[in-house]
Design goal:
The protein has helices spanning 32-35, 48-51, 99-113; strands spanning 13-16, 26-30, 62-66, 73-78, 84-85, 92-94, 121-122, 125-126. By secondary structure, the protein is of the alpha+beta class. Strands 1-2-6-5 form a four-stranded antiparallel sheet.
Length: 137
């Protein structure tokens, strides 16, 4: 199989890793039924036959950056195949394969369009060296 069909879309929460030995700088938290629908067959009874033949090896997950005004895709980044699925909740944690490319795109958007807000939080609130770019509306 060469082409992939879109099985679903959902929003992600991006969380900066605080562990210094963590190889990835960001964790992406999303809904597991979107990234791993075959794990939730009761949610998709009309696709039971299709989902019985789908697994991690036959899928790819991407994170898309979309324009705030019209929703067009600005860029997309493939996510790691290795995901961490919560054993009881509909949650998945994954990572961006090419984080440096993602960060470069975020910098470009922030500099050109002022549509991104990057804020670092610690347990006490904002870090002193947080970076903010206010969205323009």
């Amino acid at each position: 199989m060469q082409d992939y069909d879109t099985l679903g879309r959902a929003s992600l929460i991006i969380v900066k890793s605080k562990h210094p030995k963590m190889p990835k700088r960001f964790h992406l938290i999303g809904t597991a039924h979107v990234t791993h629908p075959w794990e939730f067959p009761k949610l998709f009874p009309e696709h039971k036959n299709l989902l019985s033949s789908v697994n991690e090896e036959s899928t790819k997950n991407y994170m898309e950056i979309r324009d705030l005004k019209d929703g067009t895709e600005i860029d997309r980044f493939q996510l790691d195949q290795n995901c961490f699925i919560h054993p009881k909740l509909d949650l998945v944690v994954t990572h961006i394969k090419e984080e440096n490319m993602f960060l470069q795109k975020c910098i470009e958007i922030a500099e050109c369009e002022k549509k991104i807000e990057i804020v670092e939080l610690n347990s006490k609130g904002l870090d002193q060296n947080d970076v903010r770019t206010k969205p323009t509306m």
